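Here is an idea for our session: we take a single protein and study its fold together. Which protein we use is up to you, so please pick one and set it down. Once you have written the record down, we can walk along the chain together:
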Amino acid sequence: MENSQLSTAPMVSQLTDEARVTFYKKTYTHLAGAVLLFVLVETLFFQVDFIVNFALSLTGGFSWLLLLGGFMLVTNYAEKMAIKSTDTNMHYAGLILYVVAEAFIFIPLIFIAMAVAEDGNFSILNQAAILTLSLFTGLSAIVFMTKKDFSFLKSALTIGFFIAIGLIVAGTIFGFNLGLWFSAGMIVLASGSILYQTSNMIHKYQENQYVAASLGLFASLMLLFWYILSILSND
């Protein structure tokens, strides 16, 4: 049953300027909190050899497909918790679950990035983080300045993600490297997702759905970070 509180809450686009600003502050505060939690959980994971070794053992062949499948199931469930639950605590539980799932699936990529960095430092991670945040900020600014509704991107993004999943599955089964152009295409797709999610925050969400809005932005941000980091790690 859908939450009656959610169904009667006003849309963000219908709020006063002051109330909208409050919603945006809450959303981006939760987004910042999710990013910080991701860093903390990732750091904790790398302190436990068993977790790191287990994650690395899942990167080959069909194990990687199983990991991706499990990740999609968990994150889809987390999104439903954040958006459709009647309990505010469940909204936070969904966001936390999503962050932890992202932190786990990032272990192999961060391990590679640290391995190829000079002297084992964090230079590649820092570069990827700066590039990701810069692009995220620029794309978000476009939505806020133009006030354009980017919901028309939904169909293109859905098709793009299905194509990407198909290529990943085919690459795993037939053993070919998707290469630089695939990562570049995914960065374009992630950029479109940021436009779409930011637009949704402005036009589609209700006043009390700031946790769900932050989760959508976090998902797009991490997708962008993944493929920027992938490109830098393979230079």
